[in-house]
Amino acid sequence: MKNTIDITESFGTLYHPKSALVFYETKGADSDVYVEHFDMDNNGTPINAHPLTEREAKVLARALVTEKDKEQAFLKSNGILGTNILHITPNKEKGAVLWHSKAQKRQLYFVENLDIPNGVAYVPPMIWYANKNSLAVYALVSDRRPTEKTPLYCAPFFNIYQDGKVCMGSVNINIKNSASIEEFTLAWEDYFFNSYFSHLLGNNSPIQGNCVNLWKELIQTGKPFPKEVLKKNNKTLKNLLP
Description:
Elements: E1 19-25, E2 33-40, E3 46-51, H1 54-72, E4 85-89, E5 96-101, E6 104-110, E7 119-123, E8 126-131, E9 135-139, E10 151-154, H2 181-193, E11 196-197, H3 211-221, E12 232-236
């Protein structure tokens, strides 16, 4: 017989048995059910068998309800829905959100070979469209709440494909199934702005002019984003709606 190898150290989080329930049912047309509760000793052996008490049943019920609530909480609002939210697809697996943000100052990070210093700069108004796994962004020329007819512009950043989808590189995306609409949108904006901009995708600049020189100037001067450099991408907000 081969020697037994202990591989428990290579496991992830270990869950230890705490208690167990055994359901008994009588035979016959009018069956009755009896539930017995067991505690577990340090070796995982059932001990202290006793009928399930009312208190224990309530604890179990609360735990089950909490897990159910978490599953149903995805993309629900913590209060009154913010005016920045434009559309929600409230599906646990394929849920998505469309929202906008106004022109604002953000901390930006760039890889060293771009020769752009990390720093704070104004970014234009933006449209965001995301599900749990992917993000697309676009620029706007106005802070006003967009409508279906509002034209979209190419987002003036690095790491973005021509269709607006963002290459997140090695960023570890972890959107929880219980994330509220507020947590969801905040998480994606943080993922986007806290990652390093590294390169242009495609053959064309996302702006009218040189993207590297633009961000160098904006970080060094603190000027508002010049909306006249934005490029139209021949889409309107309606094109993003399902």
